[in-house]
Amino acid sequence: xxxxxxxxxxxxxxxxxxxxDGSLTPHDLLDAFEARIKAVDDKVNAxxxxxxxxxxxxxxRLMRRPAAQRGCLAGLPIPIKDLTDVEGVRTTYGSPIFADxxxxxxxxxxxxxxxxxxxxxxxxxxxxxxxxxxxxxxxxGATRNPWNTSRSAAGSSGGAAVALATGMAxxxxxxxxxxxxxxxxxxxxxxxxxxxxxxxxxxxxxQIDGTLSVEGPMARNVEDLAxxxxxxxxxxxxxxxxxxTPPTSFLDAARSGWRPLKIAYSADLGITPVDPExxxxxxxxxxxxxxxxxxxxxxxxxxxxxxxxxxxxxxxxFAIGRGKLLREHRDLLKPEVIWNIEKGLRLSIDxxxxxxxxxxVLTQRMLAFFAQYDLLLCxxxxxxxxxxEQRYLEACAGKIFDSYIDWLAIAYAITxxxxxxxxxxxxxxxxxxxxxxxxxxxxxxxxxLLAGAKLLEDILGLRGKTPIAPRVVH
Length: 474
What we know:
Blueprint: H1 4-9, H2 12-21, H3 26-44, E1 49-50, H4 52-63, E2 76-81, H5 108-115, E3 118-124, E4 136-137, E5 141-142, H6 158-165, E6 171-176, H7 182-188, E7 191-194, E8 214-219, H8 222-232, H9 250-254, E9 262-265, H10 276-287, E10 295-298, H11 306-329, H12 335-345, H13 349-369, E11 375-379, E12 395-396, E13 399-400, H14 409-416, E14 421-428, E15 434-440, H15 446-460
Parallel strand pairs: 2-3, 9-10, 9-11
Antiparallel strand pairs: 1-3, 4-5, 6-8, 7-8, 7-14, 11-15, 12-13, 14-15
């Protein structure tokens, strides 16, 4: 068997091939990840809850099946974000209210992953109820960026991104409302994908028709990301919005060699300030698609209503999903969550109707835009990782933000337009902090998105920059 450093550096696709041919077992990988967690997690605090006993029991059951019946992950270990229930494993949602919560049933997503050969061994850290795009909470504390431990890992899938970047995971689960897969991927130099609505089945929470938040994959490269997306997909009647598995796998789509003909790039989508260094790095990366004979133009659709629309619909979701917690546990909620719930409770029917209509218009404009362009590129975040002491980014390029949400506009505008999008590592700042390029495709066009991202990943030559040892800065 390979030594732990070699195993944790291998791509997930390569590990699955070895799991399938029997030259590697799930136990080998679980041992390697457990050793890596012991070596580095005290420096970054990415995986606060471990469940290796449960994982090894699952591995034993899986290994009793014929190799062909072990699913597309074949026994690959995966951490689950601490917003998502795993049967028998402490799941806190980052909140003191649920500090001792142990679910009796797993989320549909987890059941799907385990049915496809994934083995859950850890829960990844997240802010309280995923709110704030900065991974800290009163249960486990803050998750630190491995490129500079004095900086934020972003969020809300911050623990997942850090686990990937440091070799404590080779693929990871996350979720995304206003960039929660894309922001931490950008800050940590990995890949995170927000899929189309319904692409990944999940257990409905407070709303059957809640469509702002989706579940999705994270990985260190595009092919591994596509592999995990394949393991997450599939129609499930318990999630009425879920989509059937497409006839072509997403991994095959990523490897298809499809090339875009016409690309749009925008530094700001017309709605947000952007750090000049981030703008320059992402623009230079987008321009490299000319190497693949694509025409690259500066353009974006009209997304001017995005701020008002997202603020209202997000607040509505918080009021519906967390209003009871405000009434019963106000003293245990962080101020940003209280603000969001109260904002939602004050909404009028007219405000909600206006926001829903705005979202329809935004989506229609985006669809019309994609009649002219194959892909839309822009920064995944408007800044590189900021100091960990900041609860959120308060200002950028001279603009002071009104709330803890406003700095996420470049991501949440894409959420509102119902488009799949991913963050791809595209360069580094002068402080050697990663920068992510957001690549956006039309609704349900993940195949195109993954192929385009793989093409640019190959052109940029940045694959293999992770895993790293945490760079401890006091």
